[in-house]
Amino acid sequence: MTTSKRVQDRSSKKRVHDLEIVTEKWKIVSKVMAVMEVLKWEVDMVITLRNLEQYRNRINLPKPHKISVFLSKSPKLFELYKDQRGVLWCGMTKEAEDLLEEQERLIEEHSDKAVEYVNRCLMMSVDKQLRVDEIAHFRRDFGLPMGFRTKWVHKYPKLFRVVKSGDGEEYLKLVSWKPAWAIIEMATQIVKAEALMNKFNEANVFLFLPMRTKWSAGPLLSSPFISVEECAIEEAGQAMNKDGVLGDHSA
């Protein structure tokens, strides 16, 4: 197997080949989204490339890679132009602005789920609190908006609130415990299944589940309360009589 870092040069027979391709694509998408978020907070959503250099760590584009070269590879999202003094500027296209608006709309629609994710993490933490910086690191994974630090953390005071430690570090502290969110998904499904079974038992209803068998359903239909063993014996006897294995031994 090659030691190249390019996905195209690796073996196509690897089990994680598809995952590697998605990971490589996400590395590019995350950089593009970081640039778009920087432009979102700028006046008129434009910035000089000299000022954009300050966000290299945030964009995760280390040297010697040039930001201008990276932006030029996405002409449908970013526009590069020079002013009268020869200063190079960067802005977003109309398509990129539409994508940002769509992203904000989707984040707003799924805000309840993002609140649940953050609240679950706080419930699982040792002191029922987490640093705001740690949550911000997974902001995109949780589906949190760009104004997470300034606005979003203060929108749900009944669930969590921002507190400061002695060294001035900001923490998000749990306010109310949600019992429904303390149960894992598998346990929730088990509880639902048990409730369904109890409902059938109270109504005296027999719940027949489908099962694979090697015999026909004839005896089961003729005798609704026949056991599986009796059904198998009856089927075997009918098959042996049909093949002439069991004969008349009265003589």
From TrEMBL:
GO terms for molecular function: RNA binding. Residues 14-200 form the PORR domain. It comes from the Eukaryota. Residues 93-120 form a coiled coil. It holds the Pfam family PORR. Keywords: Coiled coil. The keyword Cell cycle does not apply. This is PORR domain-containing protein. It comes from Hevea brasiliensis (Para rubber tree). The keyword rRNA-binding does not apply.
